[in-house]
Amino acid sequence: MDRHPGGGTFVVNATHEPIQEVGLPPSKSHLIRWLLMAAQSDGVTRITNVNGAAFDACSMRDALIQLGVRIDVEAHTWTVHGVGVDGFSVPTETLDLHNSGTAFRLLSFACLRNGEAISITGDSTLDSRIDRHFWESLGVQVEFPSEKQNLPLRIQGPFNQNQLTIDGSKTSQHISAILLSMPARKKALDLTIEGDIVSLRHAQLSFDIAAKCGSENQLGDWHLQPWKCEAPSNVDIPFDASHISFWKLYEILHSTSLQIPLVSTNDSIGAELLQDIDINKNQVIDLSRANDLITPLAAAMALGGGGTITGAGHARHKETNRIEQTAAMLASFSMNVECTMDGLSIQGGQLPKSPTSTVPTFGDHRMQMTAAVLATKVGAEIEGRELHQVSFPDFLRFLQP
To answer: Which residues span the domain enclosing 365?
Structure first.
C-alpha cells in the first residue's frame, strides 16, 4: 500500500522571538463520537466549536455524508440531520477514512447494520492498524486485498452474534464501536474482554456520550443493551487537551510562558496529568491512560529533569511504534532516550542539536509536531509537511506566525 500521509518535507527555522499566545484544536475524540451519535438520531444536532477541526474528524464527517447523512458545514458549526439507526444508504464509492483509526473503527462497525457490501480504505498507517482477528471474529463477510494488505476492506453485515470476545490490550476503540452502534441492535450483546483495557478514559468518554443520548450501559458491565438514540439538539466540542503537551515542550525549550486555553479535567481524557507535572523534576510518569502524550512529553523530560515513562506499551500500536520511533526521532536532534518494555528511560538536562539530515516522523502527526517544536530552537528539515492536519490544522500557524 503506497498511500502515505503528509508527504514531502518542510523547514522550521530557529526563532529568536518566542511566541506568547497559542490555541488548541477541538477534540477529535469528542467530535468523531458525537458525529456518529447525531447521525443515528432522528432529530437535528448543532455541533459547535468545530473551527480548526482535525482532518480525522473531517474524514468521519465526509464519510457520513457519503452514507446519506445531511451535514450543513459552517465555520464554527456542523449541523447534522440524523437519519435514524436504519437510515444509512449504500455509498456509491469507497469510504476513505485516511489516517483516522477512531473514525475507521467506529464507522466500519456501524456500516454492518444495513447488510450491504461496503468498501472502506485509508492510508498506509491506518492499514497497519487493522486488527484482522477482530473482523474475522464477527461472523460477517470480510475481504482483504491480500495476505499482507488490509485496505481497502470490503465488509458486509449484518452482525448478529449474541456474544463476542474482544482483546482490550491494544485498543479500547472496538468496545466504543460496538457500544455506539447498539441503538441499531434489537437484542443485547454479551462481551468478554481479554487483557487489561487500554485508553480507559477514551472508553469512558464513549459511555458518557452514549448516556447523553439515552444509553443506560455502564463501563465494566459487559451485558450491553440497545437503546433509542436521541442526541441533544446542541453539542459544544471541548478543546483537545492532549495538544497542551506540545506547548509545554515549547515553554521549557524556550524558557518562556505561553497563554494556553484552559480545558476542564472532565474533558481532558487523561491529559489532565499535564497540569500537575513539574518537568524540571526527575520522576516516573504513568501514561497507561494517556499514551498520546509520549513523544512530546519524552522530549520535554529530556530537556528537564528526566525520569521514566511507564504504562505506554500500547503506544506501539498507534500510527507508528511510538516507543521505538520516538527514540529514533529524538536521536536526530542528538537527544538520547532508551526504550523499555512499556515506555522510555530518559536522562535529563539534554539540549537539542541541529539535525544533520531530514528528521524522520514515520507518518505520525505527533512525531511531526514534536520535531517542529524542537526545530524552533535549532532549525531542521522535517518529514511530513501536512501531518499536523490529522489533529491540529492550525498548529504551524501558531508555532511560526
So the answer is: 9-25+239-399
Question: Strand ranges (DSSP E) for 303-360?
Answer: 307-310, 337-339, 344-346
Question: For the chain, give me the number of helices (H) and strands (E)?
Answer: 12, 17
DSSP H or E segment with residue 44: strand 44-48
Please provide the size of the chain in residues: 401
For the stretch 299-346, pLDDT in tens is 999 999 999 999 988 767 666 789 999 999 999 999 999 999 999 999
Looking at the structure, do residues 52 and 196 belong to the same domain, yes or no? yes
DSSP code of residue 88 = P
User: In the chain, how many domains are there?
Assistant: 2
Alpha-carbon span 251 to 350, nearest angstrom:
15
Distance CA 386, CA 390 (A): 8
pTM as predicted: 0.94
Cell 450491553, residue?
224
Question: How far apart are the C-alpha atoms of 283 and 305, rounded to whole Å?
Answer: 8
Radius of gyration, CA atoms only, the chain: 21
